[in-house]
Structures are given as C-alpha cells and as structure tokens.
Amino acid sequence: MAYTVVQTGGKQFIVEPGQILKVPLIAEKKEGEEIELQSVLSFKDGKLDLSLKSVKATVLRHGKDEKIIVFKKKRRKQYKRKKGHRQGFTEIKIADF
Prior knowledge:
The chain has 97 residues and is mostly beta strands. The protein has one domain. 0% of the residues lie in helices and 64% in strands. The chain has no helices and 9 strands. The protein has strands at residues 2-8, 11-15, 20-24, 34-44, 47-48, 54-64, 68-74, 79-85, 88-94. The strands form 2 sheets. Strands 1, 2, 3, 4, 5, 6 and 9 form a 7-stranded antiparallel β-sheet that branches. It is elongated, with a radius of gyration of 19 Å. The chain starts with a strand and ends with a strand.
C-alpha cells in the first residue's frame, strides 16, 4: 500500500490514491479542475520513496464549515460581544500518484 504526505494551506495531510479530503479553501481553482499538491514524504510498501515530487488531485466542491461562535464578556461592565465565523474549505479527490 502506498501513501504520501502532501502540503497545502499551511497544513500537511497523509493521503492515499482515491481518497476524498477536506483542505483549507483554494479559491483560485474551480470545481472539476485539477490541482497539483507538493509531496513532502512518500512511502511504498513501508519503505521511504524519494522519487515522488507531486500529487495530482481534482477539486470536487467548495463550501463552508459549521459556524464557530466567539463570545466576549467583561463582568460587571455590561460588555458583551457575540460573533460567528464560518471557515471556507475545498473538497478534493486524490488521483493515482
């Protein structure tokens, strides 16, 4: 079994061929387009394989994660602030590498 570690959006992910993955938003690519991810490490049958430099993937969709609530309060001062944030993501499918 082969797998590799790829880097995108400042994070690293362990991926296998055919895997569907949620990564930080890649806004410049549209749905259906192919992207190329930089490979950091790759393993084949439990041994390190240095020949692989990049991995191809297809963008499936863009979306937003669940809302995160940020609530600030100062006691005895009537100060309250409630804000919500939804982080964008891109869902990709790893092709054979």
